[in-house]
Amino acid sequence: MIYLADRKLLLVKPMKLTGSSVEIALSCDAGGNDIVMPLMPEDKAVRYRRRGET
User: Fold this and answer.
1) Residue 41 · residue 11 · CB < 8 Å
2) Measured distance CA(7)–CA(30) in Å, rounded
3) 35-36 and 2-4: which strand pairing?
4) Which pTM does this prediction carry?
């Protein structure tokens, strides 16, 4: 689940369904007032690479 407060956007994605790319893209744009639920370990690695983190 991702909630982006400034954009008033709520994304709810059940496990094992498509949409991980959307979830990763939105989570990279999340700020301090937003809620981002943890990703699967392999998706989390993709998120960090897209943000430029190690």
Assistant:
1) no
2) 10
3) antiparallel
4) 0.56
